[in-house]
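User: Hi! I'm working on a homework problem where we have to compare a predicted structure to a textbook description. Could you give me the structure for the chain below?
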Amino acid sequence: MTGGTTSVGALARRFPFRIGFTMLLVLVEAGAELLFPLAIGLAIDGLIRGDTAGLVLLGALGAGSLIVGSARRCYDTRAYGAIYAVVAAELATAEHARGTPVSAIAARTTLLGELVEFFENSMPMVISAAIGIVGTLAILAGIDVRVFVASLGLLAVVVVVYAATASTNLRLTKGANDEFELQVAVLETRNACAARRHFGNIVGWNRRLSDLETLNFFVIYLGALALPVYSPIVVVGAPDPRYGVVFAAVMYVFQYIEAVLGLPLFLQQVVRLHEITRRL
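Assistant: Happy to help. Predicted structure tokens:
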């Protein structure tokens, strides 16, 4: 396997059925989760009227989500484990043929594991977050346009903050990976000073990445604090508000904030995968 074929896109093209099937299950599961607050709201309004149809719908939605989610997690482990076994062996063989030092090969097979792990663990969260953000915005637009506009404003803050820090993030990630590739070679020297310096450098790179992430989170969270305060006031103040709809709106706002605050983690992962792909 060459560097040109070791990427998220290349793995998706090479194993389309295994990865595609898991992504399909993720879409179904994320769609069901998106509908939960709305189903709860409908069930509340229905029970107030003495109608249990909404409650039945909520139970069916929960059962379906449980079955699909369990099936996906069971299948994921087997599918991605098999993919990693194939591509890691190919990568190691190709790097041996090029005369790459064992220390670099060991580091790169570990980094390749992160690439495969992205599909198994991070990609489902990315898809769920994307569906959650887009779907929640659509539902909030139907409930109250003012809440929808305020939610878009929070998303804009996230985009601006991470666009401004993207180059710094990539530079720090590259530095951390450069140091990580030296690990086996440093340990083989059996030099205590070199080992302390190496691990100190790793800690330093990780600390700088953490500081950047903390700064970004702080700025974004300031915007997130205002949304759950503003939204209930607006929805409750609407003419003839329904209790179930108000409850659903509040749940969607908190669900949206959770998804938006999770975006930084996904963006950091994308930056890291981009740097890993270039390295491999």
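For your comparison, note the following. The chain has eight helices and no strands. The chain has one domain: 3-279. Good luck with the assignment!
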